[in-house]
Write a structure and sequence with these properties.
The complex is a heterodimer of chains A (472) and B (516).
Chain A: E1 7-12, E2 15-17, E3 35-37, E4 40-46, E5 52-57, E6 63-70, H1 84-94, H2 102-112, E7 115-120, E8 125-132, H3 136-148, H4 154-169, H5 175-188, H6 200-205, H7 208-218, E9 224-230, H8 235-246, E10 269-274, E11 280-287, H9 294-307, H10 315-323, E12 327-334, E13 343-350, H11 355-371, H12 376-389, H13 397-409, H14 416-426, H15 429-439, E14 446-451, E15 466-469
Parallel strand pairs in A: 5-9, 10-14, 10-15
Antiparallel strand pairs in A: 1-4, 2-3, 4-5, 6-8, 6-9, 7-8, 11-13, 11-14, 12-13
Chain B: H1 7-14, E1 32-33, E2 43-46, E3 52-57, E4 63-70, H2 84-91, H3 104-125, H4 132-150, H5 157-164, E5 168-174, E6 179-186, H6 190-202, H7 209-224, H8 227-239, H9 253-258, H10 261-271, E7 277-283, H11 287-298, E8 319-326, E9 332-338, H12 346-358, H13 364-370, E10 376-382, E11 392-399, H14 405-421, H15 426-443, H16 447-461, H17 466-475, H18 479-489, E12 494-501
Parallel strand pairs in B: 3-7, 8-12
Antiparallel strand pairs in B: 1-2, 2-3, 4-6, 4-7, 5-6, 9-11, 9-12, 10-11
Helix pairs in contact in B: 2-10, 3-4, 6-11, 12-18, 13-14, 14-18, 15-17
Classes of the chains: A alpha+beta (472), B alpha+beta (516).
């Protein structure tokens, strides 16, 4: 059996974590020795049918986890069938398979405390399973059949579609979620795969046959990267089990559509939805970079860590939240996109009576990282934080293999993990500043606001030309 | 059949010799290792001041996770000061007498001025007819005093230090029953952690109190903008009429405006004492070293008697309560029944009942309401909202158009009446047990979650093994006990139901069917 597997590579890396001790602790605590850690990275195996498997045994708990990263995403949905990827993913979970009726799957899994979940995002999909060690074979049988031979049961499809329509009806109930979705929709364009949303009309038109076509186009072995960890015995035992189930699954040509680049306006415009809610919800969106653009990603990330990355300290946290008490939630974020440059954004929920103060402060802080270099201390703090917390990438064996599967899916360099620390170390004030100057763009950011304008302390039009929209 | 799933794994480490850690290092007297293979080999130890330690080794990566839980939550808010425990939790990130300050002696004088100015301002604000001009002067005086105190602050130093050390998951949460603080760090930061955390609770300085109050008011507004949080809050205040579980954890806005830093300091001195806390460390650590460092940094933390926590008991309901919450959102509903609390064995039958109703896609709500009749988008039940006192058995559901709230409510009652009449099958109960057992394994995957669960179970339920023992108790529940519990507690005179409906003037077209 072992010879059936063509390529086996073993990765082991040595990583020393030793960030500078830039700040002395005000308490009298001895400085620890730098952490010297050689994380086991697991193995990468390619099956004859092209399916890639990352595996790492984890004897610590009597269970097995698998995640199959599928190289598809909602960006592959045809324009007249937006929602197809999501319905397909949902039906993998609910619709049964060639050998198992939907009810049989639910009953077996729930009786065993096992799970099979399927989900899809813009540029990836995933089908995962969890089973106790004693039930691994049984659950793996179902998992493999669901992944390869879904049955798309008609009654379940009908129910799922109606639930999806109900979710569409409810999509504006939480204004914090609406503002994020709508800002990106107007930023990328309502029809662009990065911006569009599921609509009742396209959902209603999707048929079971569409699901079958979608499944056979993307859910194929040479389009899947699988991560496995847990108490599965030896590597040989696991590969035998996988080969028994997936060995006959045939490789096929993959034809994913080309996603056109979005047409970006690149100038300040403001969209506003009037809604009587206790807070004003604000999103500012501007152009980002491609995930694979490592030259820019590392310095930009460092800058954003200082500016407003989610966490308990940053310039946005310091000014908007801690010192001015204007918001509970305020942060900035860099999106990760594969096909085209993504976006960066800043988000805030604040009371309408002071919304303009929060927005002005956010704009001022974005402008600051664009026009002045970070201080030495801010830079070294941000780097220390990234380097010292890198060990959490490896906190469980499953985190390790799942991360590696995802890095391969996104086409990041093979030595991404091994070079991460040195890439962060290499960021200088100059490189961070030049990336930030080029990319942070508050003057041309799209601004989306949902709130009660009767309570606003300043008209929105003072920030740029406003288009008022109706919630839809 | 009992599943002893932890046996093979933990025996790898423990070698089961008493009072030695997994490396065979002798533990100090008073330390104990759990040797029953049903449980993970947790080392426990109690300091003389009453602080309890729980330590579990996990050696895959050189990281450690920490959680400290205090048995103090919103239920313990002083009268008229709801939300104070939660605001205090925010304040516990503001530093200490040594962290976050340039010169604490001078800062303290400045902070005293801030407090005097704030108290004067609040006193004026709380008058039946505040003098506007005077209030404005007092506000300016407070702003000036805050500015003066700012000069001594090292901004966000406490969190920034943790960030530089490579923290992950730094956070805290306040529940009705308890408050806990957590963080993961690289394992070589154990001593730093002990030093910072002991300083945090021994020498807390509640600087920037009145600004953080504004942050929490924003947090309250954020919840108020979400239909589900607004409905949850109203359900609690409607179903409960006397017990302090009825108050929103974030507090009433009016209470937030009235309490002072002095109130928070009094509260802190009462409840943040070592004899009210459990500290758990999970990860790549040596238990003997954890104990040694805990003794070094926490031993001089002074214990004190805890306040009386016998609060007004909830009277028997004897009525059906219904309300409509008008909200610009699609219809949804919450239902509540009073439960007897964990001092009653009925609690476990109610836990089973919630499992039989909604513990998955094979459970009755999903099978019959989401599928079957297809009236609901979702429907779920939970046996208790809190644990220290009797709380609420709650259900949440939403209709799927064109079906209405009334149809979903009727369908839920049909299920309730059915289970009163026909006990659940053995399969339904076994499934629930198995799923709890699998959850125990899943809960051990994340060190941070494990640390949280251990510290909270110990401090709130009095036993870190609470989750494991719950399964033993659930195993004893017989099908007829579930029916009996439904018949006893899920009755109209113990029932509160709230609907979210669109405001009458602005009814969205799709919700037409939902209005009476």
């Amino acid at each position: 059996m072992r010879n059936a597997f063509l390529k086996v590579s073993i990765l082991g890396a040595i990583m020393a974590f030793s960030a500078s001790a830039s700040r002395a602790l005000p308490l009298n605590v001895p400085q620890p020795a730098p952490l010297d850690f050689k994380p086991p990275l697991g193995e990468r195996v390619e099956l004859p049918n092209g399916m890639i498997v990352y595996l790492l045994e984890d004897p610590s708990l009597p269970a097995v986890r698998i995640n199959a990263v599928v190289r598809t995403g909602t960006i592959n949905d045809p324009a007249d069938k937006v929602g197809l990827g999501a319905l397909t993913a949902g039906m993998l979970e609910d619709g049964g398979s060639a050998s198992y009726k939907p009810e049989e799957i639910d009953k077996t899994l729930e009786y065993l405390g096992a799970t099979i979940n399927s989900s899809i995002d813009l540029e990836d999909a995933s089908v995962s399973m969890f089973a106790l060690e004693k039930d691994f074979d049984k659950v793996l049988d179902i998992y493999a059949d669901v992944l390869m031979n879904p049955a798309f049961d008609a009654e379940k499809f009908n129910i799922l579609k109606k639930m999806e329509l109900e979710m569409i009806r409810r999509r504006n109930d939480d204004p914090g979620k609406s503002v994020t979705r709508e800002a990106l929709r107007y930023y990328y364009g309502k029809d662009h795969p990065y911006g569009r949303r599921n609509e009742a009309a396209t959902i209603e038109g999707i048929t079971i046959n569409d699901l079958k076509v979608h499944h056979s186009a993307y859910y194929i072995p040479n389009n899947i990267i699988m991560a496995v960890s847990g108490r599965f015995g030896s590597k040989e035992e696991l590969l035998t089990k996988l080969n028994q189930r997936f060995g006959k699954w045939e490789k096929r040509e993959i034809k994913a559509p080309q996603v056109p680049p979005p047409a970006l306006a690149g100038t300040r415009r403001i969209y506003f939805i009037e809604k009587d809610v206790p807070q004003a919800f604000v999103m500012l969106v501007w152009k980002g970079v491609k995930r694979s653009d490592q030259e820019l990603f590392f310095p930009l990330n460092t800058t954003n860590d200082v500016l407003g990355a989610p966490g308990l300290s940053s310039r946005l946290w310091d000014t908007v939240r801690a010192r001015k008490g204007l918001a509970y939630t305020v942060y900035s974020y860099i999106s990760r996109k594969n096909a085209h440059p993504g976006h960066m954004f800043a988000y805030c929920g604040t009371k309408p009576e002071t919304y303009s103060q929060a927005m002005e402060e956010i704009l001022r802080q974005i402008k600051r990282v664009k026009t002045e270099p970070l201080s030495e201390k801010e830079l070294s703090d941000a780097k220390d934080s990234r380097i010292n917390s890198f060990v959490f990438t490896f906190k469980t064996p499953f985190d390790v293999v799942n991360q590696r599967a995802s890095l391969e899916h996104y086409g990041l360099p093979k030595d991404y993990l091994e070079t991460y620390v040195s890439n962060v170390s290499k960021v200088t004030r100059d490189s961070a500043f030049s990336a930030a100057s080029a990319m942070f763009d508050p003057d041309n950011a799209l601004i989306f606001v949902i709130g009660n304008s009767k309570k606003f302390d300043k008209p929105l039009s003072e920030f740029g030309p406003v288009t008022e929209l109706k919630e839809d | 059949m009992r599943l002893s799933f932890l046996l093979p794994c933990f025996l790898l480490f423990t070698q089961a010799s008493y009072a030695k850690d997994t490396q065979g290092n002798a533990l100090p007297p008073g330390a104990a290792v759990e040797t029953d293979p049903e449980y993970p080999p947790v080392v426990s130890y109690t300091l003389k001041n009453g602080l309890k330690l729980l330590i579990l080794e996990k050696h895959f990566a050189p990281t450690l996770s920490y959680s400290i839980a205090f048995k103090v939550g919103n239920v313990d808010s002083p009268k008229g000061k709801t939300g104070l425990p939660h605001l205090f939790e925010h304040m516990a990130f503001k530093g200490t007498q040594t962290i976050g300050t340039k010169d604490y002696k001078k800062e303290k004088l400045a902070l005293d001025k801030v407090e005097a100015a704030a108290q004067a301002m609040i006193a004026e604000e709380r008058k039946p007819a505040p003098d506007k001009a005077r209030l404005e002067t007092l506000k300016q005086a407070l702003a000036a005093a805050e500015k003066e105190a700012d000069a001594f602050i090292v901004k966000d130093e406490f969190t920034q230090l943790y960030k530089n050390f490579g923290q992950s998951g730094l956070n805290a949460a306040t529940a009705a029953d308890y408050t806990f603080y957590m963080i993961s760090l690289p394992a070589n930061r154990l001593e730093t952690l002990m030093a910072m955390e002991s300083d945090r609770f021994k020498k807390a300085v509640l600087r920037e109190f009145y600004r953080e109050r504004s942050v929490v008011m924003e947090e309250k507004r954020m919840y108020d903008a979400k239909p589900e949080s607004a409905l949850g809050e109203l359900l609690g205040t409607t179903a409960l009429s006397a017990h302090p579980y009825r108050y929103p954890i974030v507090g009433w806005l009016d209470d937030l405006k009235s309490f002072t830093r002095t109130d928070a300091e009094v509260f802190f001195r009462q409840f943040y004492v070592p004899n009210n806390a459990t500290l758990a460390i999970v990860g790549d650590v040596d238990p003997a070293e954890v104990i040694r460092l805990a003794e070094k940094y926490f031993a001089d933390w002074k214990p004190s008697d805890l306040p009386d926590t016998n609060y007004t008991q909830e009277p028997q309901q004897n009525s059906e309560k219904r309300f409509d919450l008008f909200f610009k959102a699609n219809p949804s509903m919450r239902l509540a029944f009073h439960n007897p609390g964990f001092s009653s064995p009925d609690m476990y039958a109610l836990m089973m009942l919630s499992e039989v109703l909604s513990g998955g896609k094979t459970a009755r709500f999903y099978r019959n309401l989401v599928e079957g009749k297809q009236v609901a988008l979702y429907a779920a039940a939970g046996s208790h909202t809190s644990s220290r006192y009797p709380s609420l058995f709650v259900m949440v559901a939403a209709p799927k158009a064109p079906h209405t709230l009334e149809e979903v409510e009727a369908a839920i009652w049909e299920e309730i009446e059915r289970i009163k009449a026909e006990p659940p099958t053995a399969w339904e109960l076994e499934r629930a047990i198995n799923s709890h057992e699998a959850d125990l394994v899943k809960n051990l995957e994340s060190s941070l979650e494990t640390a949280q669960n251990l510290s909270i179970s110990q401090q709130v339920m009095g036993d870190w093994k609470f989750d494991w023992k719950t399964i033993d108790a659930l195993r004893k529940v017989k099908p007829e006990d579930v029916s009996a519990a439904a018949a006893k507690y899920l009755v109209r005179s113990n029932y509160t139901v709230g609907f979210i409906r669109p405001p009458l003037a602005a009814k969205p077209a799709q919700a037409k069917g939902a209005a009476k």
